[in-house]
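User: Study the shape:
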Amino acid sequence: MLISYNQNYEKIAMGLLSYIADFKAVDRLLDEMESYIHSEDKRLYLWKDKETENIVGIIGLEYNDVVVLVRHLAINPSFRNEGIVYKTLDKLQSHFPDHAINGTLETAPLIAKWAQKMNETDNSGNQP
């Protein structure tokens, strides 16, 4: 389940973002958190696992009227390879149905795999 970030999740969000190599330095991580909290065009969402009720993923994005740019995406290593990235992107698309979902140099390969999976599902006649 995709949930919006709020201050109650600060430590969890910082922990998840710290899985990203760019945020190993605490100062850089704190700066990025501030950027998400105070920017009108940026948001953080967290992925809550339905079975365990734990927050296991985070997605950071920047958006405008037509495009959502996925800037950061991290999943707790214990929950990787369970399709959470695809589920997260599916829910993100449902939150922004009229927007194109794009990625940065780091996230674009994941977005491309997700888009390919969506196209394969659509072409087979099945719902995603």
About this structure: The mean pLDDT is 92. Helices lie at 10-17, 26-38, 84-95, 108-123. The first helix runs from residue 10 to 17. Strands lie at 2-4, 42-48, 55-63, 67-75, 100-103.
